[in-house]
Amino acid sequence: MARSIIVVGAGPAGLAAAMQAEGQGARVTLVDEGQRPGGQIYRQGPPALGREDIAGAAELRRKHKLLEAFERARVRIDYRPNTSAFALFGPRDIHVASGDQTQVLSADGVILASGVREVAVPFPGWTTPGVMYAGGAQSLIKSQRTLPGRNVVVAGCGPLPIVVAAQILRAGGKIAAFAPLHSLTAGVGNLTGLWHGRGVVLEGLRYLATVMKSGVARLTGFVPIRARGIDRLESVVLARLDAAGAVEKGSEREIACDALVINYGFAANSELAALAGARMRHEELIGGWLPEVDDFGRTSVEGVFVAGDMAGLRGALVAETEGCLVGAAAAASPEIFAKRSFEQSWHKELTHRRRLCEFQKVVRAMLDRPRALWAIADDDTMICRCENVNLGHLRFAFSAGHLAPNTIKRSTRAAMGWCGGRTCLPMIAALAELHAKASPFAMMTPRPLARPVPLSALANQTKG
Amino acid sequence: MTNRTADILIVGAGAFGLSCAWWMAKRRDGSRILVVDEGEFAGGASGRNGAGFRMQWGLELNIRLCQESIKFFESAARELDYPPGIALKQDGYLVLAHSEKALKTLEAAVRTQHRFGVPSEVLDAKECIKLVPPLGRERLRGGSFCALDGSASPFLWLDALLRACRRQGVDVVYGIRARSIEPVETRYRVQLDDGPVDVAKILICTDWAAPELLAPLGIDVRTEPLPKEILVTSPAPPAVKPILVSLEHKIAVNQVDRGSVIFTVSRARSGTTTRSTGDFLSFAAPKIVDLVPGLAHVPVLRAWGGVSSVTPDMQPIIGETEREGLFVAVSSYRGFMTSPAVGRIMAAMVLDGDTNDPIASALHPRRFAAGEMIIEPLLNQE
Description:
The complex is a heterodimer.
Chain A: E1 4-8, H1 12-23, E2 27-31, H2 57-73, E3 78-80, E4 84-88, E5 94-98, E6 101-105, E7 109-112, E8 116-118, E9 131-133, H3 134-144, E10 151-156, H4 160-170, E11 174-180, H5 191-196, H6 198-213, E12 223-228, E13 235-239, E14 253-256, E15 259-263, E16 266-268, H7 271-275, E17 280-283, E18 288-291, E19 304-306, H8 315-331, H9 334-338, H10 340-345, H11 347-366, E20 382-384, E21 389-390, H12 391-399, H13 405-412, H14 424-436, E22 453-454, H15 455-459, E23 461-463
Helix pairs in contact in A: 1-2, 1-8, 3-4, 4-6, 8-11, 12-14
Chain B: E1 8-11, H1 15-26, E2 33-37, E3 52-53, H2 60-74, H3 76-79, E4 93-97, H4 100-115, E5 120-124, H5 125-131, E6 142-146, E7 150-151, H6 154-167, E8 171-174, E9 178-184, E10 187-192, E11 195-199, E12 201-204, H7 210-214, E13 224-233, E14 243-246, E15 251-255, E16 261-265, H8 280-291, E17 299-310, E18 317-320, E19 326-330, H9 335-352, H10 358-362, H11 377-380
Parallel strand pairs in B: 1-2, 1-12, 2-8, 4-14, 12-19
Antiparallel strand pairs in B: 3-7, 4-6, 5-6, 9-10, 10-11, 13-16, 13-17, 14-15, 15-16, 18-19
């Protein structure tokens, strides 16, 4: 009998995994929250808006190749857009919601490919309307053909600020200032890594050239320390920090703008893996709390697999290759998987992935988040927006010895709101370490639901 | 190995353990008090409940326990010097009846409550719905209501107690388990995870885990784990002013100040896991929608599990065991709401040997061996 596989997430890892598993004869269900396949990196706007043209040519080629392949495979895959997986207790107990209906699905294997979200670093005013993260700005541009603002400050670390700044410029926007935290040559000492990622490096250089040629003011080493404006953003204060996080005297620059776009790196959407009981590890710069996986994406829970960035930031190229590997492993029967010939048959892809991961080390060097960043927030700075918890409230909790995410949550309500801590938990871990020397590795007890679901939908459960 | 010294050891830093410690420390009689808890802050049943309190019971002792406790909750911010307060909400508590028999029980209980000055009243179905518009009408017969009942935040209550205890010099330690108790002459030697401690008196406040420590000494404390699961919604406009409990649905509903609605759902289960289970949402959601159809559209944010305790007659066990100096306080799933009064009673008992309190003498640990059972009409309905 054919094996049944459920894939969560339709980005490059999920799409590749679904197609690979289907190609091996598995019955595949692909659930995704988006309206159209592609995930964040290959996000598609409504069909009426046509194909976008702000991404680099090479990225567009990869995107369309993958999406077209999926269009061909789609008739053989039970693809469910607008569907959230909100709880997972193992491959036989997968809860999904769509509209006003829920379903409990059961399969031989589940592949989690739900990617990453961005890490927020709090500073006074960071919740002012007009301050947004790079992914949000890209979603506006890619799926709505809307600029995040007329006059935008772009800041942060890693390659994404360069990409977003270039995309804003290509879409006709104006950049008020571009503030990369690290020198743009961070990580270029790793020549092997650069060589393995040469395709992407060239794309990156083209984005960089777009930014440079525009004559935009570049403020290397500056970070946003305050966003001003009440109902909407009016200006941003950028400054240099010393090692302790104090503002370097005289370095402040106030820049008028109507949008601030930031990226400070990523946190893995690993909630479902944790809820299923997968063994987790913590690596701050590539996603925080991550499921432990082997080369084929197997977690410590039988039948639960992970592919792509959710296992630790690795980028779209690795994600797609890895999707194939994980899809193949999940679709193989345990007997076939156990044979040495299985691994040998995937030797080429395994090597390819290893090389691409070498390049990821270059990216990682650009993503370094200095501890000093976390010292910008003051006691009035909001940390948990859902429950109105500011740093002062957190420090009151620290003073009674509540230092682990569980006890901070109980004593302040942080992470109990709508987002379930997806935004505030990485901040809380870093702030507890900075202010109370807590270990940042302790994890909050995972709880359902990974997404809010109406009572009526929970009560309206159909058989899967 | 840590060298700990104390005169009194309290095992368990839940609502009972911390409240008892605070009442003892308040006496300032020089006793050194150590509280150990194997878990983390608010990690047990005290931090995992529906947060409600009520004086609507059918037995004098339960009414009195809760009357005293609610009075204390009202002044807790001041008494415990905890400026944030404990999120006290006194918008009443509505106990619902979905059968004539249940309504008759409530009517009898209200008569008893009036004898002790509880301002409760019986409402018909129409009045219930007027008070709580989202309620389902089907089969609803009526309910009893008391405006002084309500809820508070168990987290803030525990945090307030913890800080007040520490200010009074109580040593409260988390992540340390008491492994065994050994009588040594007139004292006790307790093996903790990080070394032994010799104490004169011990108070066990670990609810369902109490037998683990006491059985090896031949002390029979009959309490069993009672797992429950709870879910909470996103903030919704105010719709459920009083707390609700439906005896038929076995569901308690509490819409707290910020708008979130907490549903505590009971079902027959055993074990001691606090993990969330896959079938809980499927089990609970249809029952909730049946009880309060007007809230069906509200999104659920989170579900969690907790393990409370239950004794053979569903009443607390508090008192000195057959071993002098060894005390026990088991809540039987109402630890949060009765903790202020139990703390006062136990402090008097442990420090002064005062066992004359009428409540304490009724709830003593040896009642089951003597064949005594205390029947609370409102619980045996559930």
